[in-house]
Amino acid sequence: MEMFISLLVQIISGAIGGNIAGMTKESLGTGLNTLIGGVGGLVLGQIVAALTGTSSGEALDVAAVGGNILGGGIGGLVLTWVVGFIKSKMAAK
User: Fold this and answer.
1) How far apart, in whole angstroms, are the C-alpha atoms of residue 31 and residue 77?
2) Mind telling me which residue stretches traverse the membrane in this protein (predicted)?
């Protein structure tokens, strides 16, 4: 159950990060910002969890939840911004 909660926190944080990245001129629209942000949050959230040793899903302490929120939010923000940046550069040609 704790693993499910960790994944859910990473996806939600990534979706929020994606919508924050969508406030720039590289926005993809609300739906795609949320979707790509969720994917980025899940990917980077899992990487951060593996690096910090909280990936086993055994404990749901403050450090684990904080790492999930931070990794998920930053992952969603970065992936959404990068995809939006590439899209805007391709449309400029």
Assistant:
1) 14
2) 62-86
Take residue 41 and report the two structure tokens written for it. Answer: 């949050």
**36 or 6: which leads in pLDDT:** 36
Q: How many residues does the chain have?
A: 93
Query: How high is the pLDDT of residue 57?
Result: 56
Is the pLDDT at 1 greater than 60, yes or no? Answer: no
In this structure, what DSSP letter does residue 9 have?
A: H
Q: What's the token pair of residue 61?
A: 């302490």
36's tokens: 């790509």
Euclidean distance between CA atoms 87 and 51, whole angstroms? 31
Position of tokens 């805007």? 88
> Which parts of the chain fold into alpha helices (H)?
2-21, 30-52, 62-91
* Alpha-carbon distances, residue 51 vs 7, 22, 48, 66, 75 (angstroms): 16, 28, 5, 14, 14
Let me know: does 38 contact 7? Beta carbons within 8 Å.
no
